[in-house]
Amino acid sequence: MEIRHSFDVKKCILCAYFVTFLTYLIIGFVPAGATDYIVSARISIPTINLLSDVTTLEKDGRTLHTPDTIVGSYSEAENKTLLIGHSSTVFKNLDEAEVGDAIWYNGHGYQIVEADTLLKSEINMDKLLKPEETDTLVIMTCAGEELDNYDATHRLILTAKAV
User: Helices in the chain by DSSP H: which ranges?
Assistant: First the structure.
């Protein structure tokens, strides 16, 4: 007596394995919470090995939603751009950047001229977004003590001017 159905079971198990493996390759490598962003620019800070895509953000009322894994940009003036990102992902080494470091943004060179850490409550967004005479980048991320709601007590703010 020959049992042929065991060979079919093996084929089914093998097929299920390959389908599961392919599904993992296609879906499993996408980070949790990842979103498809429209890339509008790139930023590089060579001294801290930062290289990231940048997406343009739109205000939601008075809120800017920070992208999970890349940098977000927002501007109310032609020559001033606010760049934001999470300190746990894209800006994890931003605190190592120093005054004088070079930044490349959208094909243009900038130099960090100021680095501040401020209490979140002390930040004046109107001042941060105010137009400047020269092309200016303002880069901001969380700093200080972590809060329960994935926020922090302070913000690290770097200001860079076009060179």
Answer: 5-23, 125-129
